[in-house]
Specification:
Layout lengths: L7 E5 L4 E5 L3 E6 L7 E3 L10 E6 L7 E4 L6 E7 L2 E8 L8 E20 L2 H4 L4 E5 L2 E6 L2 E8 L3 E5 L2 E9 L3 E10 L10 H16 L9 H13 L1 E2 L4 E2 L22 E2 L3 H11 L2 H15 L9 E2 L10 E2 L13 E2 L10 H15 L8 H15 L18 H20 L7 H18 L1 E2 L4 E2 L15 H4 L7 H13 L1 E2 L2 E2 L20 E2 H13 L3 H12 L11 E3 L4 E3 L5 H14 L7
Helix pairs in contact: 3-14, 4-5, 4-6, 4-14, 5-6, 6-7, 6-8, 7-8, 8-9, 12-13, 12-14, 13-14
Amino acid sequence: MHPRIEDYALIGDEQTAALVGKDGSIDWLCLPRFDSGACFARLLGDENNGHWRIAPVGAETCSGRSYRPDTLVLDTEWETPDGTIRVTDLMPQRDRAPDVVRIVEGLSGKVTVHSTLKLRFDYGLIIPWMRKSGGHRVAIAGPDSVWLRSEPAVRTWGQDFGTHSEFTVEAGERVAFVLTWHPSHEPRPPLVDPYRSLGTSITDWQRWAARCRYQGPYRDVVVRSLITLKALTYRPTGGIVAAATTSLPEQLGGVRNWDYRYCWLRDATLTLSALVKAGYHNEAEAWRDWLLRAVAGDPADLQIMYGVAGERRLPEFELAWLSGFAGSAPVRIGNGAVSQLQLDVYGEVMDSLWLARRTGLSPKPHMWSLQGVLLEWLRTQWRQPDEGLWEVRGGRRQFVHSKVMVWVAADRAVRTLEEYPELPGDLEGWRALREEVHREVCEKGYDPERNTFTQYYGSRELDAALLLIPRVGFLPPDDPRMIGTVDAVRAELGHGGFVRRYEYGSADSTVDGLPGDEGAFLACSFWLADALHLTGRTQEARELFDRLVGLSNDVGLLAEEYDPESDRQLGNFPQAFSHIGLVNTALTLFGTDGAG
C-alpha cells in the first residue's frame, strides 16, 4: 500500500529537506537545494526511483516516532520479538556539504537491522556508478557525487543496483550512517562526526526554539510550526519555500499537482507577522531583505513567486518516468504560474514593508523609493483583470481579493506618509486612489441580495480569501457586509467543518480551468477562525482552531489541504502556508500577553 502524505516526517538543514516515512525510508531528498533534482524520489514513483530504508529485518512499520523536544531531530522506535531499537535521523546545519545522519541504537535485546540505499539522481532517473574508496561507498553520475560510510564499519554489499548493509545491535550499541553530497568535480568534503552532530543539532534547535515569546495555550504546536517554517527557510538568502515537495496531489489520482519548492509573495505579510510576533526578528529581517532583492527592478515585471535566491525563470515541465504519488500524474517541475499577473502581490509587498517599518526592523534606505515606484505603476494598472490569489488557469477576471489588496497597497502608502511626513510621495493622489478602489469594490464586488462579497465582479461564487477583508482593514469586522460574507463563506464553501478555497465542479464554476476537485484548504480554515473571532464568535473560532490542530500528523506537521471524507492530508508537505496560519491564529485567539 502506498504511504499516506501524513505518514512522513521532515528533517532538514535549512537549505534542503528530506521526508522520512513510518517504514523507516527516506523517500524524498533534493540535493543540494530545495529545488535541486531529487536523489530519492520514491515519494512520486516507486522504490526504483530512489530511497534509503533502515529498519529491523522483517519489520514493516515503526512502533512510534517523535521529534526530540523543540528540535528537528527525529527518533523512530521499532519494537520486535527480538528487542527494540531507535533510529535517529537528522541533517546537521552544513558547513560546506549537506549530510544526512542516521544513528541506529539498541535499546533492548538483540536486533538485526538492514539498510537499503538506492540512489537515483535527477528525480529518480539516473543510476549512478558505485565504487569503494577507503571504507566509503561512492556514487557518481554527472554533476553529483554521494559518499556513504558507517561508524563502526558494517558488512556492506551491492545488489540489484542498490547498496545493502546488515548488522546487529544490542542494548547500548550504536551504528551511525552518514550520507554526504558534493559536486562530483570537487574533492570529498571533510567528514562530520555523526554523534557530535547529533548533540550540536539538539542544542542549536532548542536554543532557537527557546527564543519563542509566545507562552499561551498550544505553545507546543506553535513552536513546532515555527520550527517547520525555519526548516523551510533557505538560510543563505532568507527565502522561505512554500513546501519541501513538488506534485503531491490536491486530489488523489488527479492532475492538480504543482511544484511548491519556491517562494511566494502572497505569503509575505502573514509570514512576517508570524515571525515578528513570535519574537524572531532576525528571521523576519532575512525574509524582508529577500523580498526587497527579489522584487527589485521594473514594477511591471513583479512576479508572484521566485526561486530561493530570487531566481525568476522557473519553467514548468513534466517528468514522464514518475508515476506520481498514489498514481497522481503528471509530476511537474517548475511552475508555469510564475508568468501570471496577480495584482494582489503588490498589496502584499506594500503591506509587508509597512509592517517591517512599524515593528522596528532595521531600516533600508532604498525601501521607500521602491514602494513609491510600485504604487505609481499600480495607480495606472489596477483596473486590469488578473489570475488572482489562487493562480487560476481558467482566464483572467476582476477578482475582488486582488482589488482589496490594491486598496491595501494604497492604504499602507498613505498611512506611511501620514506617520512620516518627511518622506516624499503623492499623499493626496494616493488617498484618492484608495477611495476610488474602495468604492468600486463595494459597488461591483458585493452582492446585496445575498449580503456577501463575491469572488469576482458580477459573480455569484465565493472565495475564502474574502475572509481576509477585516484582517487587512478594508472594512471593520462588525460591518454587516463582512458578517454576511463570513456566514456565506462558511455555508457555501464549508467542507466537513473546514473551508475550501472556492467552488469546484459546478456548471458555473470554471474559474480555475482544471478538472476534478480538491480538499479543504487549511490556511483558509485558519482564516475562518480569525474571522469568526473578529466578528465576535470567539468560542466558535477556538473550537475550529482545536479541530484544525487535530489534523496534524503524529509529529505535528500539516500539508496544504485535508479531505474530510477520506480523512487524509492532501497537497504539498509540509506546507508553510498552513503552519503560518496556525501560528497567526494561535496568537490572534489567545491574546498578545504571551506573545510579547
